[in-house]
Fold each of these.
Amino acid sequence: MLRAMAEFEKSDIEWQPLALTLVEYPKGDLWGKFFAITSLAPFGIGSGFITLILFRRDLHTIAFFIGTLLNELMNIILKHIFCEKRPLSRGNLYNEYGMPSSHSQFIWFFSFYVLYFFIFRLHHIYNNNVLSIVGKVIIISSCFMLSLIVSIGRVYLEYHTYRQVIYGGIVGFINATLWFGVVHRILTPLFPQVANLKVCEMLMIRDTTLIPNVLFFEYTKSRHEARTRGRKLAALKPVR
């Protein structure tokens, strides 16, 4: 009896998929599958942010991540202001509006912020050789290519109209410009004081503004430390 009642209660439950990560595409359409996969790029970027913050704990990375969150918050506000529907109704999978496209706004915000970061933050690196310049061009070009692919994919899969995607890109560009200006002009000079706060010292949050090449700095420091510790361990070994 109890089992039958439990089964009856379960049958009344309405199940709904998590629309945040669910992407539909026409069955057998390889381009559709490709665009569906690339439309998950914002989630990969978000996971990368969390990983970098946990392991790097750099104030610039944290500020960049806060900017993406503010960008997403503005997208939610704009969607409820315009209340424009998506081009294709998918039942109860997507209850939110489509203007502007959150994917387009996020990915263009990310790409333009990366562009500004390379232009204004990394321009002073002393090893601006050909290989370094080519590397920067490849990274920036890859970001903008991904942004273009994601934007086209949102229209191809009929999640957004061209207009919704274009406006999303414009809002993302404006937000990236404004937020980078705030970080570069207002927040960056305050980073040394913030890094010296007790809570930041406890969490090992650091400021790398004055280090021109963080990757090279960490590589040389860790290599030097490993060699020093290796010599100390070798000196402690008993002589036979």
Note: The CA atoms of residues 82 and 180 lie 26 Å apart.
Amino acid sequence: MLRWIRQQLGFDPPHQSETRTVYVANRFPQHGHYIPQRFADNRIISSKYTIWNFVPKNLFEQFRRIANFYFLIIFLVQLMIDTPTSPVTSGLPLFFVITVTAIKQGYEDWLRHKADNEVNGAPVFVVRSGSLVQTRSKNIRVGDIVRVAKDETFPADLVLLSSDRADGTCHITTASLDGETNLKMESQFQQQS
């Protein structure tokens, strides 16, 4: 009943099942009942703004700060009511603070866009149609087999299928996830029969 209500309200789309089936190397069944599942893509987006939403989103975030909102109210009151001080005395500093902060946040977001594009455009090797193909990390799909060499960054969440080490292990660092720089040992996936 609860699932039906969630589906009707749009929180839980009806075409998604409770289990996920991942087809290795994206080899889908030829016959039978197959419903394609939508998975998120592998693009990394750490930026907050786009060209279209920068001004409204930035203004909204800035006026959520109590000091900026207070000075906006003071400025509006000075515009509407005859006060002994000029509205410029509160409006000009507010405009200056808002402008400088917007420029700073815009520059920081531009740097995030550059870093995202660098990570998303990193070359990776993926098995497609039985051969090793070079592509960008943003084009990795769920089910792809990815080759990662020594000292390379993992381009996605991966399951270790094999390793060139005799014991089938590899050592990884998770510094980009949790800041820890020590090596962790991972064992290769063992198929159960």
Note: Residues 65 and 111 are 24 Å apart (CA to CA).
Amino acid sequence: MAGRFYFAWRMFATAKAQDDRNYNADVESRVRASFNPLLHLTGRQFKDRYRISKKVLKFLCKELRSLTNLSSSQRVSLEHKVLTALFFFATGSYQRPVGIAKHMSQKMCSVYIEEVTQALTHKNIINKYIRFPDTPAARQAVSQRFYRKYGIPGVVGCIDGSHFKIVVPPKEEEHLYYSRKHYHSLNVQMVCDDEYRILNVNSKFGGANHDSFIWENSDLNTYIQSLHQNGEIVWLLGDSGYPQRPWLMTPFLDAESNNYNDKHMRARVVIENTFSRLKNRWRCLHKDRVLHYKPVKCAHIILACSVLHNIVINFGVEDTEENIGLQFERTMESDQITYTEREATSDLIRGRILRDQLARRVL
């Protein structure tokens, strides 16, 4: 008899606990619905919290809904998921989004961040918002803007790598991510145009890899070489950490200040500032933060923030005063490793000839 009573009590207790969970979930859902950032925050407050405008949020949600698998769940809207992820990207902290939301657990916060990150890195989104100019007309447009601003012809982008700190990876692969800066990182290669728009991202390599190695093993390197083979003479601008090639112009080394080097440096600052703007707007990537995920997920977060960076540029959302003050932090770095050629290859020789011709044209 006692066993039957105990069994009945356990069934009742289990059912009550489930009812309580359902009730709490309903309450939390109503609480979330009662606070709408689009309605209850001013434009400035919204931008300070999420780093984008209300107009951009509406557009972003529409794009993710139509181009990816991201959708609302029974109790949480797609917009709420996106706002949760944006707040994490903007702060780099789980605790602040959880603290402000009050009725959202850290576990669910993590789930929403993962869902939105996957959506932002969906191939449909990437192909639309991170695109190297894929037609002669598009490349010509970028080249003309660079020439008007900096006086160097033929430039279709500036290239550089930047380290993004990550938590210590598993021991068997840790050596791939320990950088010369003495911390674990991803060395992310990016190419940008004159308007700080990111045209290409390669976030697959650990911090132990040098910029030149990442470039030599990138799809963009192969692509721009194919342009030269088809008679289209355009190039990227890179620092002395890259090899001089017909399609990649680097500064003259051990030379006194000259017009080519001066213009090269002024033009190439755009990639330095692109990294700074990216890291200062999306503070999860900031130099004082560490991404506490496996390297592959860290790479996805960097790519997701790059997509958001370009969307913000497309809408003309200005940097906050806080971001502007930090804009030029990377230009002060002076520990760049110079690339050394092992032998005088035909690509190197042709690259130097083209650079000499280019230097005479910009006098």
Note: Confidence is low (pLDDT under 50) at residues 26-32, 324-334.
